[in-house]
């Protein structure tokens, strides 16, 4: 999988922001396990501190409208005690905007949200809601939050994200990961090629490119090798893998897989 496509050829094109590929660890499902039983164990803040020690560059937490995993008190605790940057995932609602403006996390990622979904499904529909979203993100940017928009690898959505003034996009990698897991290899390669093309397109518009959703040890390398991608956000897989190997081991292994993919694509000076 790591050699899929001519990723290395991209190094010959535009000046790319290679550097260290950042890893954001999503701790939502530590809270899911806690909430299944009630009480305070396992503690998402403790998981965040372990992630930092294991090589994470940031912590992601999704405060959903239904509070099914991360809660308001979790966000307050993370903001008070966390040394790593916090990336607050949230829907584009007045309630969530007010919470973000009160806490002023390092980053805010705007995601679609439906009550009946198991997890975030697909990317945000930006092109059909440009005016509202432009007004929604403006005060967040003014408050100093890095605003990103979680979208599908679709040219129309990327162009719309650029028009509304979002400095960052996060490409939804779920279709690629699902195709790989289900053995649909031709579809997997098509989805990966689409992600590669749209990462390059977004970069050409001046957007910072992130990616995430469903990434595993088996699927992370090709995405990590995209020269335009600056950050990967990974959570559910790491929390699940922690059951078998421990959270520290899972994060360290993912960190190494990302760094190795970067080095193999662009040389020893890149991590």
Give the structure's gist in a few sentences:
With 271 residues, this protein is α/β, with parallel strands linked by helices. The chain is 46% helix and 15% strand. Helix 4 (94-103) links the parallel strand 3 and strand 4.
Question: How would you describe the overall organization of this protein?
Answer:
- By secondary structure, the protein is α/β, with parallel strands linked by helices.
- It has one domain (32-266): Alpha-Beta Barrel (TIM Barrel), CATH 3.20.20.
- The protein has 11 helices and 8 strands.
- It has helices spanning 28-37, 44-54, 72-81, 94-103, 130-142, 155-163, 174-181, 185-204, 220-224, 236-245, 247-266, and strands at residues 22-26, 58-62, 86-90, 107-110, 146-151, 168-172, 208-212, 229-234.
- Strands 1-2-3-4-5-6-7-8 form an 8-stranded parallel barrel, surrounded by 8 helices.
- Strand 3 (86-90), helix 4 and strand 4 (107-110) form a beta-alpha-beta unit.
- Helix 2 (44-54) runs parallel beside helix 11.
- The chain is globular, with a radius of gyration of 18 Å.
- Residues 1-15 have low confidence and may be disordered.
Fraction of residues in helices? 40-55%
Q: How would you write the strand order of the largest sheet?
A: 1-2-3-4-5-6-7-8
E-strand count: 8
Radius of gyration: 18 Å
What fraction of the residues are assigned to beta strands by DSSP?
15-25%
Sheet/helix structural class: alpha/beta
Identify the CATH architecture. Answer: Alpha-Beta Barrel
């Amino acid at each position: 999988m790591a050699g899929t496509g001519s990723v290395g050829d991209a190094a010959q094109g535009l000046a790319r922001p290679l550097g260290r590929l950042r890893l954001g660890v999503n701790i939502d499902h530590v809270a899911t396990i806690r909430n299944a039983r009630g009480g305070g164990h396992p503690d998402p803040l403790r998981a965040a501190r372990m992630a930092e020690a294991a090589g994470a560059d940031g912590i992601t937490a999704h405060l959903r409208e239904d509070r099914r995993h991360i809660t308001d008190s979790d966000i307050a605790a993370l903001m008070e005690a966390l040394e790593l940057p916090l990336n607050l995932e949230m829907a584009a609602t007045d309630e969530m905007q007010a919470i973000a403006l009160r806490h002023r996390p390092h980053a805010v990622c705007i995601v679609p949200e439906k009550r009946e979904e198991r997890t975030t499904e697909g990317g945000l529909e930006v092109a059909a809601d440009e005016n509202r979203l432009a007004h929604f993100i403006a005060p967040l940017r003014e408050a100093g939050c890095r605003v990103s928009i979680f979208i599908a690898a679709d040219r129309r959505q990327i162009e719309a994200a650029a028009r509304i003034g979002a400095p960052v996009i996060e490409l939804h990698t779920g279709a690629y990961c699902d195709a790989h897991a289900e053995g649909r290899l031709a579809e997997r390669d098509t989805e990966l090629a689409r992600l590669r093309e749209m990462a390059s397109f977004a970069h050409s518009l001046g957007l910072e490119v992130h990616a995430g959703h469903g990434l595993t040890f088996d699927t992370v390398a090709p995405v990590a090798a995209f020269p335009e991608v600056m950050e990967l956000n990974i959570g559910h897989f790491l929390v699940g893998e922690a059951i078998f190997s421990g959270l520290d081991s899972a994060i360290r292994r993912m960190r190494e897989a990302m760094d190795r993919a970067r080095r193999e694509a662009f040389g020893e000076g890149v991590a």
